Amino acid sequence: MTLALPLPNRLSVLLVDDSRPVRAVVRTLLTGLGFGRIFEAADGDEALVLARTCGPDFALIDYDLGMSSGLDLARRFRDPVQSLRPDLPLILLAADGFAHLVRGAASAGVSAVLPKPVSPSRLRETLFGLLQPEIMAPPTYGASLQALDGVDPCRMSR
Questions:
Q1: CA nearest neighbour of 84 among 136, 39, 144
Q2: Do residues 73 and 50 lie in contact, with contact meaning Cβ atoms separated by under 8 Å?
Q3: Which of 15-19, 121-125, 150-154 has the highest mean pLDDT?
């Protein structure tokens, strides 16, 4: 059984987690599913900047971001004053056993909640369900492809 999504290389991902090792694990899962453009942020402020600059197709956000929560960041993404994409699909990653977060996540505008540790099949199933229209849509090109100085700031990840 293959876990690859149809044409995931056309989609870009914003991965937000304050833990570099966790980001590395989730990046490996996303790469295994065929995603090639993965932008990493360690906190909410960095995530909002990368979302404006790189134009991701969806965001995976950890619940515990250290000084703030993934729900706080989701609310900021949904605020059109702070975010250029208040409709961006947001997937919250939370430690297993946080069933009570689902209600709070829904009110914060989170599209889906995935328990950690994340399995490749569960991640694929969730992404396919949320992103099917984007997968089938023609590719879009925007300012994120090249900065004015010829360097793509979205190629950087940590």
A1: 144
A2: no
A3: 15-19
Task: Indicate the length of the chain as a whole number.
Answer: 158
Q: What pTM value is reported for the model?
A: 0.80
**Which of these, 154, 132, 105, 99, lies nearest to 6 by C-alpha position?**
132
What mean pLDDT is predicted for residues 21-36?
92
Q: Total domain count for the chain?
A: 1
52 with 84: CB under 8 angstroms? yes
Range of the domain at 45: 10-136
CA gap 105, 129 in Å, rounded: 18
Average pLDDT for residues 43-72, to the nearest whole number?
A: 93
Residue 145 in any domain: the answer is no
Residues 6+ apart with CB under 8 A from 93: 17, 26, 60, 61, 62, 63, 70, 114, 116, 118
Question: What are the tens digits of pLDDT across the range 95-123?
Answer: 866 667 777 888 899 999 998 888 888 99
